[in-house]
Predict the structure.
Amino acid sequence: MRDRKGVLGALVAVMMVVAIQTAPAEPPSYADATRAYNLAHGRIVFTENCLRCHGCGRRGAPLVDDADDWQGRVEQPLDTLIRHAIDGHGRMPPRGDRDLSDQDVAAAVAFVVDRARTLAAGAGASSSPPADAQSNGHDRAVVRMFMLLLGKERWR
């Protein structure tokens, strides 16, 4: 009886290892899911590094609050947009001529794509909310994240 349990346990362990190794590395929709990234961090990176061009349209950069500027861009897969930002695209230099990690760039791109999609959804509505009300959704998400962290026992 003991030998059967040992063999059965070993068989289950081998099956689990095989299942883990053959499972896809990422879900199919991962490339388009901005929520897979830390949008709060992306907002900080974008604000500190990217607004110098995306705030005024320098080098033809799409303006951060202009839904029309982002329309065609946000229809592309998120991983393509991240690759463009890392490698450079059009008149945008690689990483925007900043010393940023791939993770920083990816988070910033995910933030701006999420924001552009929110703006585009608001522009399609008959009465779109003002820009500051649209950004409040991001502000609320950041506040919620910090409140969750503050509620943890380890922070007390």
